[in-house]
Amino acid sequence: MAGEIAVRVAVIGGGPGGLYAAALLKRLDPTREITVFERNAPDDTFGFGVVLSDETLGGIEHADPEVYRALQAEFVRWDDIDIVHRGRTLTSGGHGFAALGRRRLLAVLHRRCRSLGVELRFRTEAPPAAELAREYDLVIAADGVHSATRTAHADVFRPQLTTHRCRYIWLAADFAFDAFRFEIAETEHGVVQLHAYPYAAPAPAPAPAPASADTGPTPPHTRPAAESAGPASAPGASTVIVEMREEVWRAAGLDRADERTSVEWCGKVFTDALRGRALRSNNSSWIAFRTVVNERWSHGNTVLLGDAAHTAHFSIGSGTKLAVEDALALAACLQEQPDIPRALAAYEAERRPVVASTQRAARASLAWFEELAGYVDQPPRQFAFNLLTRSRRVTHDNLRLRDPGFVAAVEDEAGVPAGTPPMFTPFRLRGLTLRNRVVVSPMDMYSSEDGVPGDFHLVHLGARALGGAGLVMTEMVCVSEQGRITPGCAGLYTPEQAAAWRRVTEFVHTRAPGTALGVQLGHSGRKGSTKLMWDGIDEPLDTGNWPLVAASPLPYKPGSQRPHELTTGELADIRREFTDAARRAADCGFDLLELHCAHGYLLSGFLSPLTNQRTDAYGGSLAGRLRFPLDVFDAVREVWPDDRPMTVRISATDWSDGGTTAEDAVAIAGAFAEHGADAIDVSTGQVVSDERPDYGRSYQTPFADRIRNALGVPVIAVGAISSWDDVNSLVLAGRTDLCALARPHLYDPHWTLHAAAEQGYTGPGAPWPLPYQAGSRTPPTGRTDAPKPRLTLR
């Protein structure tokens, strides 16, 4: 099939991704005419070292062994990460990195392209992609983060560009660090961080030349990677990136500093790490990282590759890696598909999920560094563990495999008993001690009749209580008939409902002793009078609707019922409904009460500026929007038993422009904590129907993390936490105190007990109910091993 499509190919941009794509396509079909347009000279490059993963190298080895062998000869490899903070260095091993100079990488690819017959046009500005697309069968736009191709066709690619809150500068040191080094400096202006890694190994001293030998200068193309540093590159070379928040950068005067002054400033801050040596630059400037996401990657016969299509923060070392992997996938799809449209569609389908996963990890990593000032007071080993697991790609379990001694030291510093996974350590809230850190998250069941929970609720909550979680939460229990979401929602506004809930609490306390049972109280607000979830989530009832109330008369979405704006008198009535329900909950024997101020329900509707447009004392500023939710909290806290904890669930972002910000979320959490909340349950979204959540594994946990470390208040993290490894990682890193899981507990009511069994834990944090103890070990399976060969018969 090679040669049938993409006979003439133009590549815009001579970076690693564009060059490697050109080499692969030419190698797969030597009859192709491939031209690379690069506006810079061959040896111009910005940046110094490049890190590639073993996975990427494996792909290169399979696709082009010659390029792989050339790169392998250049690589510097190391296993350790050093984390330096407040004069202390902690080292974690077993990580495995490979790096080389960017110039050397480009030189390898230049040679390969020339040997294959690719035309390289340096110092040549590429014609516009639209013009090239008329002359060539395929145009590969590998023209970087500032892609002119992407800009020219923004109406098709529909890019989303997000500029982040730190400034960084890319520098180099003329010696090789012993490990990947993270160093934290707390300056008079604020926190500054260094990211550094070796990319050129120390070279052995050259043997003395014979007296008769020609000792003239070495031809430039044979010099090692660091030749531009001056004399001998024997000490090796390292990439050095210095990064800080924008406000720190400005306070230090670096917004007004020239290149030389900036380099000298960085050298002084990290003089110990640099061993007193100077840093060097290469047209280096302070940059604010920009995340690039495109809705589409191709337009006709033009396709985006590398940074033109997507970017991921340098703190996970992914830019060149992604570009090279893009090139591999694009070449393969062009080889496998019958025409260019299907090849480009297959390329995007293959790469987009991988890139999205990498970008999620990169965003988590860059956000961690943006919030670094909130972590610097953590205990040393916890700080190091937190840094290492920041992107969620390194976890407690795989870090324990890489460096068990390091993880054991972190656990010991945190007071985790030997042999106990962090998730099975106890946690105290007011007068309640939870035996472990697992919470069964509130999940609406829509299975009540007239608000009365029945046998289903007894079995549903009872099963999860027997399953080992430290805290089991009810669904949102409505405080009035008008406050229901659907006709199937449970309530606590009648004696019959209270009696049914008492049946559940008595079962849990009798049959699952040690399990705490919490009730979540809420009012649907403008999101009420809707169908059962499986009949049409958030869709109005066909018949039998009841009137809705809200902070402002705004329907939830087109076609939804318009709510009535609550008057001051009606607010007092609703506050009384909450306190009446809280008294009943206390009488029922619930161990904990949570006030639902999230997901666009009534109290959440007061908090968000998108849903509260009031002009009285209950609207306007954040203080005004907080007034009624705090009034309700205070009233409930007054009637709720003093020794029992109260938590508050909030939506920490609306995932919509103009809504609740991360800063607002910290202020909201702080206000509830000041009024006596024992923990903040940090969820996000579901406030407006046009939200755009950034879904992904543990995607909501950074919001809980920020609140915990900004305020020192206990938090419950939620949102796609699906594994016990995630729970261990989040708790040990100090990003949360408790982890709430929903869907995993629908899949497996005994999720917590099974997590204990899978980790070989049998301690007090996860006791098996006596009738279930025979099942506390993983059931045996059929043997698959065969007799080992002992003799060789001839």
Structure description:
The protein is α/β, with parallel strands linked by helices and 794 residues long. Helix content is 35%, strand content 19%. It has 25 helices and 29 strands. The strands form six sheets. Strands 5, 6, 10, 11, 12, 13, 14 and 15 form an eight-stranded mixed sheet that branches. The chain has an eight-stranded parallel β-barrel with strand order 20-21-22-25-26-27-28-29, surrounded by seven helices. Helix 2 packs across helix 3, helix 16 packs parallel to helix 18 and helix 20 (622-639) runs parallel beside helix 21. The radius of gyration is 30 Å and the shape is globular. The protein starts with 7 loop residues before the first strand and ends in a 36-residue tail after the last helix. The model is unreliable at 208-234 (pLDDT under 50).
Topology:
Elements: E1 8-12, H1 16-28, E2 33-37, E3 49-52, H2 54-63, H3 65-72, E4 76-78, E5 81-85, E6 88-92, E7 97-101, H4 102-116, E8 119-121, H5 129-135, E9 138-141, H6 148-152, H7 154-157, E10 159-173, E11 180-187, E12 190-200, E13 237-245, H8 246-251, H9 259-269, E14 279-280, E15 287-294, E16 298-299, E17 302-304, H10 319-336, H11 340-370, H12 380-388, H13 396-402, H14 404-413, E18 427-429, E19 432-434, E20 438-440, H15 455-466, E21 471-478, H16 495-511, E22 516-522, H17 533-536, E23 549-550, E24 564-565, H18 568-588, E25 592-597, H19 602-607, H20 622-639, E26 646-651, H21 662-674, E27 679-683, H22 701-711, E28 715-717, H23 724-732, E29 738-741, H24 743-747, H25 751-758
Parallel strand pairs: 1-2, 1-9, 2-8, 5-11, 9-17, 20-21, 20-29, 21-22, 22-25, 23-24, 25-26, 26-27, 27-28, 28-29
Antiparallel strand pairs: 3-7, 4-7, 5-6, 10-13, 10-14, 10-15, 11-12, 12-13, 16-17, 18-19
Helix pairs in contact: 1-4, 1-10, 2-3, 2-10, 3-4, 10-11, 13-14, 15-16, 16-18, 18-20, 20-21, 21-22
